[in-house]
Every structure is written in C-alpha cells, then in structure tokens.
Amino acid sequence: MKRHTRRRITLQAVTACLSNGYLRAFMDGKVFTGPTKGVCVPWLNCYSCPGAIASCPVGSLQTVLGSRSHGISFYVMGVLVLFGVVLGRLVCGFLCPFGFIQDLLYRIPLPKIAVPQRVDRVLRHLKYVVAVLLVVALPMLIRAATGQAPPFFCMFLCPAGTLEGALPLIITNPQLFSQVGAVFWWKVAVLTLVILSAICIQRPFCKYLCPLGAFYGLFNRISMYQMQVNKQTCSSCSHCEGVCPMGLDPSNDINSPECIRCGNCKAACPTSSIVAGFELRAREALKQYAILACHRDTWAAHAPAEKGCGMRIHSKTASIIWKIVLLAFGTYGLLDGAGILAGAYNQSFPHMFTNVSNLFAWVYFLLAVVWLAKNRKDENATTFAPVAKYTATVSLLTTMLIAHFMLFDAMFQNGHIVLHLVALHYVVPLMTLLDWLLFDEKGRMPAWGPFAWISLILAYLAIVMVGVGAFGLNMGGGTTADVTAYPYTFLDPAISGVGGVAVFCCGMTAAILVLGYLLFGVDRLLARISKG
User: Which of 249, 330, 341, 379 is the 20 to 30 A CA-CA neighbour of 16?
Assistant: First the structure.
C-alpha cells in the first residue's frame, strides 16, 4: 500500500510540475502566454497561474460559451470526451494537481471527520449542479441576454484558480493588492473552506464541487480503463472500503461514477481480488464479439459460442448484402471522383493510388458477390481469393490513414464535404475491414501474406516510375498537375531527388508491411479466442 501511495504521489507531483513548470513566470510575476496556452490539459489547471504552460478545460469552455462570436468549443469537448472514454476518473486520481494538493492536506495529522451518509449522499449531487449551472447554463444565458458573459465557475467558485493564479500574482505584484475587491475575498473564503475541509475530509472538492469530476464520472462504466472484482476470491474483508478516499464500497460497485480510480483498494486487497487496466474492456469486447460472431442462428449476446467456428457470421446472405452495399458506395465514389456523374471525365483519375486501390477493391467485391451466390450451400466456401482480398484491404487502409493524418483538409472544398472523397477514403476502407472481421474465418492468413499484399502498391509504383521516367507519360493529377508529370510530387526525382524518392518508396513499403502484419496478428489473436 505504501509503495502504491508513493508511486501515485510521485506521478501527481510530476503532473503538477509539468503543468505549471515555467518557473521564470513565477519569478517575474507574469502569466505565461506562449503558444502552448492554446492547448488544454484534461484536469483543473488555472490559465492565470504564472507558470501554467497550458489552459484549463473548464475555463476554456466557459470563455467560449460566454464570448460574442462562439457557441461551444468542440476542441475542448473533444479533449474531455477523449480522456473520459479512455481513462474515466483516473484523471482525478492520478493526474489532477488540485487532487494532489487535497491528498497532501489530508496527510496533516489532525482529527478527521466522517460526513454522515445522508448528508454525503446529498452533497455529492452538488458537482452536477455546478457543472450544469455555473459552467454551462449561466454563461450561455447571460451571453444570450447581454452579448458576453463571465466565466462564473472560475470567477466565483474555483479554489484551484485562487491558489494557483490569484495568490501567486498578488504575492509577486504587491501593487495588485490595492485593486482586489469583494469577489477576490469571496474566492479566498472558498479556498480557505476547501483547505480546512481537505485536512479533515478526504477529497472534499472532488466529492462535492468539481465539475470535471462530474463529467468524467459519466464515463467510468464505459471507459477503456476498467476495474474489476473477482467475487470468487473476494473475502468481503472491507479493507478496500477502509482505504477508499471517496468513501465507497469497491467490492460492490468498483466502477461507480464517484470512483477516482486511485488504486488504493487494489493495493490494499489481501486476496488480490481487484484488477484494473485497459485489457479488461478489450477482453470483454472480444469475448462478446466471439459470442456474437460464432453463433449461427441468432444475434443474441447470451448465445453460447461454438469452438472452432472461426469468429464469423456464417450467413452468406448477410455477407452478400454487405458487399453489395459496399459496392454501391464504391460505385458512387468512383463515378463521382472520375467526373462521370458531372458529365466531365477527369483525365487524371486513374493516376491516383486512392482510385486505383478502390477500383481494385470494387472489381474484387463484384467477383466475390458472384462467387458467394454460386456457392451459397457450400459451408467451406467462406472467402473468395483471400490474397486479393487482403491486398485490397491493406491498400485501402493505407489510403485511409494517409488521407486522415496528412490530407484531411482535402475532404473539404468551399466549406463543404466532398462526398466522393469520404466514400473512397473512409466508407469503403472501413466496410472492407469490417467485411473481414464479420464474415471471414479467422486464423487462415499465412505468415508470408503481408509480402503478397503489398503487390498492388509495388505494381503501382513500378508503373508510375517506368511510365513517366522511361516513356515520358504525363500521369500528373490533382493540385500538382501543373507542377509535375508524376501523380505525387514525392515521386518526382526532380523535386524530391533520387534518394528522396527511394527513401519514400522503401518507407511506404515497410509501413504497409507493418500494417499487414498488424492485420495478421489480429487475425491470429481472434482465432485463438474463438478456440477458447
């Protein structure tokens, strides 16, 4: 238990130092306003803290909600949802600097107070009221009425802002003291109350007032990080309940929205009945997938799995329908991308690898539909031309990843989504991947497979380099058509150099091999799970 506590305190201290690590700002008495302030950390960390190198999500959200020109910050909400989905309230237990301060205050050897259960139960709902009323409702309502609204939570309640921001600035800038008013003294009173409470009660701010804790708590039961109690080995000794800073009974509700996932219960369990980690959610998801995919006659999640079924849906009718829908999206994407639907053929369309890989996949799935229709009664007929299928799958996933991480802005023109690009870069690749997950028997991929699956990209590179370099063909396309005869500037030796082109081709080949072996590894993993 002591070892776990030391590790957690160390991590909390590191997080606090990293979040507020610009010491020179403390010495100068000025708030750091560098470019990293445009980034939000997922915990309470006051923007006005002199050494803070990033922004507080609650403050940032309120600023946007209360401003004249914006309605809601999707970036801030995205950060909060991301950390909520991945970690839940683990952020509170291991990362939040103000939670760290409360933990330190409770270690002061003074009498402790047990809040009566009835009072505690009512007070725990306050943080939801704070989140809805002070963080969201009031800024939006006041802005609607006056055009702009102050950040109510930061201004009137947040003790972290007073401790990290207001007090250091006043200490280093004595002239500011003459400018403080009633709001400052109110915030000092709130901070004093929280500090005194934290000495006697574990994590009072986290329990009763923190809007971030309220938000993250909503994700505790569904987040990737999970905790679990083995009821068969649990001795009901209540050790876990005695060390829980949130006053919970982990043996009965380990993933409660109130749990900050500090891990004290796990460290104190004498029978090691409590486990935690990301693999619990993944294991449960794979288990449910195996049950669902292996059962022949029903979609019921409680149906027993058949060992050796290969983790797939056996219905060829469902497989054919899925592939027809995929073909429909592919047909639209290819026709619209080629300009045929607009009545003007795009000459550079066949030069781009995205279109080549999608056309290859379209031909494959058309043949697969015909083949499945002819072999509907053959139980052994599961996957048509596996090498061709996984070649298409790896190629499409490659185009999707490149488009998403490097060319995402190309999906929009004049503020509108280009639908055929979405179809070719996202819908078809994802449906192809799901087609394998849902309908193919697992464990059949050969170890040499990824070397065969890169054949399409290698053939494409060879045709481009020989066609343009040796025969002088013009295969330019897209926005670079007037710059180079190659479909991409990084393939043109005159622009990237011979060495640069060689490095790119080798790197792309290696990356696709890695992607192929990742697919191969998942295939083997699912096969082992299906066999029990």
Answer: 249
Closest CA to 255 of 241, 279, 276: 276
Concatenate the DSSP letters of all residues of 224-246 into one string: SSEEEE-TTT-----HHHHH-TT
The pLDDT of 48-63, averaged and rounded, is 86
Q: Using 50, 70 and 90 to split pLDDT, how confident is the model at 69?
A: low
Q: Which residues pair with 412 in a beta bridge?
A: 417
Dist. CA 446–CA 390, nearest whole Å: 11
**498 compared with 482, residue with greater pLDDT:** 498
- C-alpha span between 81 and 463 (Å, rounded): 45
Whole-number Å distance between alpha carbons of 288 and 355: 36
Q: Give the C-alpha separation, 470 to 276, whole Å.
A: 60
Q: Distance (Å, rounded) from C-alpha 148 to C-alpha 57?
A: 19
Strand partners, 411: none
CB atoms within 10 A of CB 384: 17
Instruction: Give the DSSP H or E segment for 277.
Output: strand 274-277
The pair of three-digit structure tokens given for residue 101, joined into one six-digit string: 């301060």
d(CA 491, CA 267): 56
Query: In terms of Cα–Cα distance, which of 340, 339, 348 is closest to 473?
Result: 348
pLDDT confidence bin for 371, thresholds 50/70/90: very high
Q: How many CB atoms lie within 10 A of CB 216?
A: 28
Show the CA angle centred on residue 142, arms to residues 137 and 145, nearest 5°. 130
Is 128 in a helix, a strand, or coil? helix
Helix (H) or strand (E) run with residue 276 in it: strand 274-277
Give the per-residue pLDDT at 436. 92
Stated as kind and residue range, the H or E segment containing 13 is helix 2-19
User: Contact 387/449 with Cβ under 8 angstroms?
Assistant: yes
Burial of 351 by CB count in 10 Å (0-12 exposed, 13-18 middle, 19+ buried)? buried
CA distance 115 to 132: 25
Each residue of 298-352: pLDDT tens digit? Answer: 333 333 333 334 567 888 888 899 999 999 999 999 999 888 888 888 888 888 8
C-alpha torsion 232→236→240→246, nearest 10: 110
Tokens of 356: 């080549």
Which residues make beta-bridge pairs with 227? 276
Report how far apart, in Å, the C-alpha atoms of 153 and of each of 133, 137, 138, 170, 258 are.
9, 11, 10, 20, 21
Q: pLDDT value at position 203? A: 93
